[in-house]
């Protein structure tokens, strides 16, 4: 059986852009006998979503990318004429104060975030680990009596999320960067729920206006993934910058 071709076909059927056959061969497990095809597809998918899209070996050339004028603010509007895979380099919640963003990032740094009525402790080591739910904290949230030091209440978090507007920095396979702004709320986009290095498919018809991509659920498909090193550096760097900005604001108020 031609395993790389079968894996590539399986990835395409799941909506992923097809990686190069040569790259798939390097991403396959080095063991004999090989696991069943579904397990092979899942392994290569995980490694694809954790890869850097700018790796020239990842796709057959030429790979789908932004048009050359994508970031030009003088161009009023242009529609993408093909689907483009991108990765997230930065995310900012434009609806929250700097101090609220500090609290949010500190929760992520502790490996903790709120999702629905559960406090989710995120995996910090093995990428194959599943989420572990803190059931005691979950019950506290349901009863409305969260203990001090826990993540904020689920209702408050959900209310903020529904009304939030996020701005992303998106990078294509050629390394070109474009801002992405939520035109309509996309539930998966949020600090703590969207990771740095996460992969997104921008569909044909998505609108670029004044150098900014307008994101909505109809033209934006989030595939998942994360580049661990990028995520760690981003949380630490952004947290430091926000703390410095909050400290400067406090000094100016006095």
UniProtKB/TrEMBL annotation:
Residues 21-55 form the RMI1 N-terminal domain. Residues 67-238 form the RecQ mediated genome instability protein 1 OB-fold domain. Coiled coil: none annotated. InterPro entries: RMI1_N, RMI1_N_C_sf, RMI1_OB. Residues 131-163 are annotated as: Disordered. Pfam families: RMI1_N_C (PF08585), RMI1_N_N (PF21000). GO terms for biological process: double-strand break repair via homologous recombination; resolution of meiotic recombination intermediates. Residues 151-163 have a biased composition (Low complexity). It comes from the Eukaryota. GO terms for cellular component: nuclear body; RecQ family helicase-topoisomerase III complex. Belongs to the RMI1 family. This is RecQ-mediated genome instability protein 1. It comes from Xylaria multiplex. The lineage of its organism: Eukaryota, Fungi, Dikarya, Ascomycota, Pezizomycotina.
């Amino acid at each position: 059986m031609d395993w790389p071709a079968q894996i590539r076909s399986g990835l395409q059927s799941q909506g992923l852009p097809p990686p190069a056959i040569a790259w798939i061969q390097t991403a396959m497990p080095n063991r004999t006998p090989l696991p069943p095809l579904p397990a092979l597809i899942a392994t290569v998918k995980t490694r694809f979503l954790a890869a850097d899209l700018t790796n020239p070996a990842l796709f057959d050339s030429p790979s789908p990318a932004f048009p050359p004028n994508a970031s030009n603010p003088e161009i009023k509007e242009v529609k993408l004429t093909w689907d483009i895979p991108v990765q997230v380099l930065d995310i900012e919640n434009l609806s929250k104060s700097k101090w609220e963003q500090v609290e949010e990032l500190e929760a992520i740094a502790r490996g903790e975030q709120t999702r629905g009525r559960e406090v989710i402790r995120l995996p910090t080591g093995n990428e194959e680990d599943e989420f572990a739910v803190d059931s005691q904290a979950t019950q506290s949230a349901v009863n409305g009596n969260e203990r001090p030091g826990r993540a904020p209440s689920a209702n408050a978090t959900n209310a903020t999320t529904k009304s939030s507007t996020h701005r992303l920095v998106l990078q294509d396979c050629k390394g070109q960067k474009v801002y992405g702004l939520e035109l309509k709320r996309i539930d998966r986009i949020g600090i703590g729920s969207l990771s740095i290095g996460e992969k997104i498919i921008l569909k044909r018809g998505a609108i670029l206006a004044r150098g900014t991509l307008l994101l909505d659920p109809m033209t934006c498909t989030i595939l998942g993934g994360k580049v661990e090193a990028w995520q760690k550096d981003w949380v630490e760097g952004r947290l430091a910058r926000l703390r410095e900005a909050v400290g400067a604001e406090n000094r100016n108020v006095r």
